[in-house]
Amino acid sequence: xxxxxxxxxxxxxxxxxxxxxxxxxxxxxxxxxxxxxxxxxxxxxxxxxxxxxxxxxxxxxxxxxxxxxxxxxxxxxxxxxxxxxxxxxxxxxxxxxxxxxxxxxxxxxxxxxxxxxxxxxxxxxxxxxxxxxxxxxxxxxxxxxxxxxxxxxxxxxxxxxxxxxxxxxxxxxxxxxxxxxxxxxxxxxxxxxxxxxxxxxxxxxxxxxxxxxxxxxxxxxxxxxxxxxxxxxxxxxxxxxxxxxxxxxxxxxxxxxxxxxxxxxxxxxxxxxxxxxxxxxxxxxxxxxxxxxxxxxxxxxxxxxxxxxxxxxxxxxxxxxxxxxxxxxxxxxxxxxxxxxxxx
Length: 344
What we know:
GO molecular function, one term: UDP-3-O-[(3R)-3-hydroxyacyl]-glucosamine N-acyltransferase activity
CATH architecture of the largest domain: 3 Solenoid
Radius of gyration: 26 Å
Function: Catalyzes the N-acylation of UDP-3-O-acylglucosamine using 3-hydroxyacyl-ACP as the acyl donor. Is involved in the biosynthesis of lipid A, a phosphorylated glycolipid that anchors the lipopolysaccharide to the outer membrane of the cell.
Strand content: 25-35%
Number of strands: 40
Domain UDP-3-O-[3-hydroxymyristoyl] glucosamine N-acyltransferase non-repeat region: 21-89
Pfam families: Hexapep (PF00132), LpxD (PF04613)
Pathway: Bacterial outer membrane biogenesis; LPS lipid A biosynthesis
């Protein structure tokens, strides 16, 4: 598809600055732009590229002030990042939707399937499962017994949902993720072996949750492991039994959350964060990448870093000292030599 700058500006309620008739048929990062491409500038760190980009059209914020000549046509919008996301959504929808049920599926007679489904090849749907309207189950998805999936949910190839789990409306789960596998529950016995503790609960994903690829969310021992409405979970994340993730919390890749931890709403958790079990993370917390959370955090909205984690500002000051420790050690050794020489 091909659009003029004027047409795109009309979609976005933006203002064209340059040639309104220039046409684009693709999108690219601003530093990789080519003629006929559309890019955007939202982060000031990338401003230098707007003066050299070959993209024909660039979305910018209304308050952007150029300091050099720009070859591209600009479209000024209220929020360039949001506007670009809107265009990406339009392109995605234009690709068309998958519909229909493959002949190579296994659906148990007691399962209920809603209207307008897409069910790809080699999908299995278990006894008494309930699948909502407009649900898309891509090839090789497994749906266990008594699972409920709400309307408009999308499960990409190879997703596995164990028995009794509940998936809300407008939930997206990416390829290879496992929902409802057993929690890591074992008790030591007198003979030195470990006895498995049955995991009898389930997992609940509320509406508008999105789960990345190859993530594992364990079922509860009793009750439910819960991911609240609007939370976004990245790839390669481990969420253990009886964890609760608050509304609209976002968690980046390779984070691990141990059993029964409670994470508040609106939190931002960086990549490779480790959170021990049975603690609480307050609402609005920001946890920097590779931090270790070993005890309850207390103040809503704090920013922490380090392992064990503490206040971000204090951590940065400590790091300024820590990275200079080799030089400080050498200075101390030299001072010790001088002191010994004076003593002699």
